[in-house]
Amino acid sequence: MPMPTAARASRDDLRNIAIVAHVDHGKTTLVDAMLWQSGAFRAGERVAERVLDSGDLEREKGITILAKNTAVRHGGLTINIVDTPGHADFGGEVERGLSMVDGVLLLVDAGEGPLPQTRFVLRKTLAAGLPVILVINKVDRADARIAEVVDACYELFLDLDATEQQIDFPIVYASARAGRASLTRPADGTLPDSPDLEPLFAVLRDTVPPPSYDPAAPLQAHVTNLDASAYLGRIALCRMFSGTISRGQQVAWCRRDGSVERVRITELYLTEALERVPAASAGPGDIIAVAGISDIMIGETLADADDPRPLPLITVDEPAVSVTVGVNTSPLAGREKGTKLTARLVKDRLDRELVGNVSLRVLPTAWPDTWEVQGRGELALAVLVETMRREGYELTVGRPTVVTRQVNGALHEPVERLTIDVPEEFLGAVTALLAVRKGRLENMTNHGTGWVRLDYAVPARGLIGFRTQFLTDTRGTGLAHHVFDGYEPWSGPMRVRPTGSLVADRSGLVTSYACFSLQERGALLVGPGTQVYEGMIVGENARADDMDVNITRERKLTNMRQSTGEELERLVPPRVLSLEQALEFCADDECAEVTPGAVRLRKTVLDAKERLRERGRRARAGE
Q: In the 3-class helix/strand/coil scheme, how is 88-101 assigned residue by residue?
C-alpha cells in the first residue's frame, strides 16, 4: 500500500513571480509601473526610471545585469517580484531567480516578437515546471504586429515541448511605459483599453499558485543570492520553503562540502518596495535576507538545528567562452595613481567574484600571474573586466576563445543560435559575412516591411568580433541577437579578421607628422600626443599581415618655412575602441591592456625580434 501523503498548506496572501524576457523588451519598466500603481512611492517622489537597474554599468548599457527582487502590496496580496536579466550571458542570474518563484511573467515585444533570449529564458521556465503568463508588451509601437507575435509565441512553446498545462497560458496585452494592461487584444499600434495594470494583477493572482508547504516539515531556506553591507557584512538572500525563522535563532548551516555548522541569525529582513525592513520572523514562501554568516555561499541551505535537511545545490549551464586575465606587464604599468597592480590583489578580486557569480569559473594557467576566466559569453566577461577596471585594477586581458569539450572522442565546440534583422539592401553583405564564419542559415522571413529576419546556427568563435563588422556592413541599421544552443563537432579553421595590425617599433609620443604618413596604410587607433611603447598596436593594417611602424617620427627641421595647416586639417581622427571592441579586435597573439584611465592594445610579446622568432617556431611546428 502506498504511504499517504501529508496534507500541504498554502499562503494565499503571497505570490512569488519572476519577470523574464529578451533584452530591452520592457521588464524593468513594467516593474516600475507595478511599484507606482501599488503605492510603493509617495505622490511627487523623485524616482529614477528603471529604478531596479541601480548599477552604473546597468544604466550606461541599458540592460539588467544582476537579478534583483522587490515586493509590492496590492489588494491585500504581497507580490515578491524577481527582475531577471534578459541577456543569455547572465543566464546564471536567470536560473537563480527561477529557483525563488512559483510563476513567471514572460514579456515579448509586440513588434520584434520572440528572439533568441526569449527562447533561452522560456526553456529554463518550462524545465522548472512553472506556470507562464504571456505579456505582449509595447502594443502601442507603430510597427506592432500583435496577432503574428502571439502565433509565434505559441510556436515557440510547441517547439520547446511545453506540456498541455503550460501551453494553456493567459495572455495580457500591455504598454509598460504607459502603465496600462488589458485582456482584450487592442488594434496594432494602440494602447490597451484599461487605464491601469489592474487586469495584469488579477491574472497574476489567479494564475500563479500561492507558495505551498508541509506544516510538519522543519526549517528549510535556500540561499539564492548574496549581497553585502559595510555594517552587517555578507547578507544571504533566501527563499523559505518550510518552517519558520526568527531573528536570534540558532540554525544549521548546510555547506556545499556536506558539512553542517550551527550559526545564529543576527539580523532578519523582508523586502518592501525597494527597502529591506527588519522582521521578527518569516515563514514558508517568504523571500528573506539574513545576516550573521560571514562565509555563506549561493546554493547552501539554512535548516533546522536539530533536523538539518539540505536542499539540492543550484546548478547552471556550463561556460562557453573564456579569456585570460593577468597583471599588467606593459612599460606603462603603474603610471596612474592608486591603481592595484599585484597578482595577489587581482587573484583576490577574482575569488570574490566567484562568491556571487555561480556561472563563472577561474582556472590556473602555466603562468603564476595569469588566470583563465570562463563565463557564458563575451558580454559577461567584459562586464567583469570593466567592473574591475573601475575599481582601480590594471589588467592584461587576452582575446576571448571558446571552451571546447570531447564528446565520444571527437572535439566539439559551442554553437549559437543567431537572429538578425536587417534591411533588404544589406541581405547579401550579411550572408557573405556569416559564410566565412561557418554560419548555417536555417530560416529567412520577409515581413513585407522592407526588413528581413535571418535565423542562423553559428559556431560561437565565429561571433567573436562579429558585431563590429556587422554594424559596419549594415551602416549601423542591423540588429543581431544570439544565444547558446549546444555543442556540435568542430567546424574547422576559421579566419574571422582579414586585416593585420600596425605595431609601434619604439617608445615615445605620437606625432601628427607620423600619423599623416601612416593613415594611408590603415585606420589609426591613437592620436597625436599619445604615449606609446614598442609592441603596442597603434592601428589596423589594410593588409592581412602586421607591420612595424615608427609613429613617433618627427619632421626634420630646415631653414625653409612650410605651412602645415592643410596637413593637419586632413588628419583623420583615430578610432577609439571601447573595452568590448578592443577584446573583439585582438588577434590570437594580441591582448588588451586595461587600466582605470585607458584601454590599449598590444602584442603579447612586445619585442619585435622575439615575435619574429616565435612566428618562425610556429611555422616550423606547422610543417
A: HHHHHHHHHHHCCC
